[in-house]
């Protein structure tokens, strides 16, 4: 299976769903409309492409791009042919919600809970979307880029030591 073959199969089946594509490091990466991401993944799993292993789900935060501030990233794998694909869906932060994949992949349960916890992305239809790694009363999402990386008041470090 090649990137071109899979890309052509997806764009033929879902011509309006694919927003963009690229192949960084020869890794097929598609941006899909957020409302279509589940049906595209369902098709990849159940079609002759047999991309049926969910490797990872995570989030990403681009605070400088309000219309695409929050993204969900899915890594999928065909174990028979060793073909991997990355799918991305972006949305505004106030509407950070996508459909759950727990009915397609049992392993999505933990990954979606972790992504919810760290990025605040809600997964519609998830059976138990609650905190699993952080303290329960944490009222923020630690992976969002909302805070300075360093404390400007520190006097115990010299930026020259870090190449700055």
From TrEMBL:
<keyword id="KW-0874">Quinone</keyword>
<dbReference type="GO" id="GO:0016651">
    <property type="term" value="F:oxidoreductase activity, acting on NAD(P)H"/>
</dbReference>
<dbReference type="InterPro" id="IPR001268">
    <property type="entry name" value="NADH_UbQ_OxRdtase_30kDa_su"/>
</dbReference>
<comment type="similarity">
    <text>Belongs to the complex I 30 kDa subunit family.</text>
</comment>
<keyword id="KW-0520">NAD</keyword>
<dbReference type="InterPro" id="IPR020396">
    <property type="entry name" value="NADH_UbQ_OxRdtase_CS"/>
</dbReference>
<dbReference type="Pfam" id="PF00329">
    <property type="entry name" value="Complex1_30kDa"/>
</dbReference>
<dbReference type="GO" id="GO:0008137">
    <property type="term" value="F:NADH dehydrogenase (ubiquinone) activity"/>
</dbReference>
<feature type="domain" description="NADH:ubiquinone oxidoreductase 30kDa subunit">
    <location>
        <begin position="31"/>
        <end position="151"/>
    </location>
</feature>
<keyword id="KW-1278">Translocase</keyword>
<dbReference type="InterPro" id="IPR037232">
    <property type="entry name" value="NADH_quin_OxRdtase_su_C/D-like"/>
</dbReference>
<comment type="function">
    <text>NDH-1 shuttles electrons from NADH, via FMN and iron-sulfur (Fe-S) centers, to quinones in the respiratory chain.</text>
</comment>
<keyword id="KW-0813">Transport</keyword>
<protein>
    <recommendedName>
        <fullName>NADH-quinone oxidoreductase</fullName>
        <ecNumber>7.1.1.-</ecNumber>
    </recommendedName>
</protein>
<dbReference type="GO" id="GO:0048038">
    <property type="term" value="F:quinone binding"/>
</dbReference>
